[in-house]
Amino acid sequence: MTTSLSVRRHDQRQRASAPRHHHHALIQQLEPYLLISPTMLVIVGLMVVPIVIVIGYSLMDNVVTNPNPKFVGLANYTAILSEPGFWGAAVNTLFFTVGSVVVHMVIGMVFAMMLNSKSMARVPRAIFRAIYILPWIFTASVVAVLWRLLLDPSGVINYILISLGMVHEAVPWLATPSTALLAVTVINIWSGYPFFMISLLAGLQGVPSDLYEAARVDGAGFFRQFANVTLPALKPILYSMALLDLLWTTQQFTLIWATTGGGPLGMTEMLSTFTYKLAFNAYQFSMAATSAVLVLGASLIVAVFYVRNQRREA
Fold first, then answer.
1. From residue 236, how far is each of 199, 202, 240 by CA, in Å?
2. Can you tell me the distance from the alpha carbon of 272 to that of 104, in angstroms, rounded to the nearest whole number?
3. What pLDDT score does 5 carry?
4. Which pLDDT belongs to residue 24?
């Protein structure tokens, strides 16, 4: 009789504790989502919602200026893809971006290897590191003002070139159609190479010195060591940085706008400035939204490659 009563009491306690255990397990499952919910709300409010709104604008005839915009489907995409100005801006953006990324990589590698060299004393290395990282200190607007002064017809660069006999008269580099795109690309290269240099320098310092010693024992010279030791060790860094720089350079706006504004004759028009002018000069907000969506799609393709690379490395 006593045993039966104890069993019934034990069953009652188990049934009473079961809801509490289930409630505790549910809280544990929801806890990670509750912790990230503030961040997710910010992301949704500041990124997802604006993107959805812009996509919606691109499917309307003309928002903001039209009090009763109508749904036109893909008509805006057809119109902008047949616009010569869009393709001109796309070609300029491609030249500007690819040229900047490639030269960033080359200059960054050269300077990083020089700063990592054991033959350079500590004091000169510190001085050169401070000089090489100097462009990274300035904002894009300061860089634009600095280079506009340097490239002015009465600026330092023209003075030096004329003194050396390389040109016979002052050249308005940023106002000449044949030189403007190259000039803004050089400015962007100058302002962006420290990103590669610092990252590659950190990567070089992580390469074991034993690998270089083994390569020297095998009779490998500088170029063979670079090809067989340095490049394989830095390949993941180079790939990730190239994709990030590609995304960043494609979206460059401030530097272009502050130096040339997309001119002369549209020779430095980028997709960023083209989209801006559609919205705030021509007040064609739907077409500007369409251009922005196309740029977003291209950027997402690059972002997918970056994420896949990061997962593979992890």
1. 11, 13, 6
2. 21
3. 47
4. 66
Per-residue confidence (pLDDT) for residue 32, from 0 to 100? 78
User: In whole angstroms, what is the distance from residue 158 CA to residue 163 CA?
Assistant: 8
Helix, coil or strand: residue 71: strand
In contact, 259 and 187? CB cutoff 8 Å: yes
CA dist 310 and 207 (Å) reads 20
Amino acid at position 7, single letter: V
Q: What is the three-class DSSP state of 166?
A: coil
Q: Positive or negative CA dihedral for 170, 174, 180, 183?
A: positive
pLDDT of residue 144: 93
Give CA–CA dist 238/202, Å, rounded. 12
pLDDT on residue 118: 80
Low-confidence residues in the chain, pLDDT < 70:
1-24, 26, 314
Return the axis-axis angle of helices 177-205 and 231-250, rounded to nearest 10°. 140
Closest residue by Cα to residue 112 from 243, 233, 252, 255: 233
What is the sign of the dihedral through the CA atoms of 108, 89, 65 and 293? negative
Which residues does residue 71 pair with via DSSP β-bridges, in sequence order?
60
Q: Where do the domains of the chain lie?
A: 84-313
The pLDDT, as a whole number, for residue 7 is 46
Confidence at residue 75, expressed as pLDDT on a 0 to 100 scale: 94
Cα torsion 87, 91, 92, 93: sign:
positive
Q: How many helices (H) and strands (E) does the chain have?
A: 15, 0
d(CA 230, CA 173): 38
Distance from C-alpha of 218 to C-alpha of 212, rounded to nearest angstrom: 10
Residue 12: per-residue pLDDT = 54
β-strand partners of 60: 71
84-313: which CATH topology? MetI-like fold (1.10.3720)
- Residue whose token pair is 């989502």: 33
CA torsion 276→282→285→286, rounded to 10°? -110
Q: Which amino acid is residue 149, in one-letter code?
A: L
